[in-house]
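Cross-check.
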Amino acid sequence: MPALRLLPELEDSLRQIPGVKAASVVTGPDAVPTEVHVLAAPGKPAKQIVRDVQSLSLARFDIDIDHRIVSVVQIADEEVRAVDPPRHEVAPEEDGDDIQEQEESLPRPAISAIMVRSVKGETEASVTLAAHDQLFEGTSHGPAGQTHRARLVAIATLEALSELLGQPCEVESSAIVATGAREVALTVLTMVVPRTGEQALTGSAVVRGDEADAVARSVLAGLNRQLAG
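Predicted model, tokenized:
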């Protein structure tokens, strides 16, 4: 099913919110928002940004946005590297087993907030996930630099998921790769499964405006079946 962006006026208005640097509103064919992605500067709490998005959308466009579809990524100015999302994006097809599994295991962990900042040569990544009406946060620290960021975000995402997974898992690698005209986050995870041993899991996600968000989604994609229980 195509993922459309039929509310450009709303996107323009969201970019006027103080602290917001970029915004993308994904809609269905009926122009109803299904995903809202916001790139913002650190400083304002992510929950406040979500409330600002809801208030502006309702007051100016009479659109009631569910807070659960709003994803906020906070990155310092010097660390921002955004890729403009495509106007039309076709979601990958899923087989019947995957669709049934998703329906049976809802709600799944959803990205609530991501923050990446660099201070004095060190990068800190923080990822907050929402699941079952609870928030789960993970953090990671490492060397500053573009080459390390994807792995740090992946580690923070995995740490946020640790309580939900209930078994050891590590990030083997995570990177942003170019394929054709798009960029894709690709993450490889290693999990130790009882009676089976070490198992390699992979997940990928198309970059839709921010690399950190795509990396976090690639980790969730790699652990799709494990999170389904």
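The two ends are 26 Å apart (CA to CA). The chain has two domains: 2-75, 89-228. Passed to J.P. for a second look.
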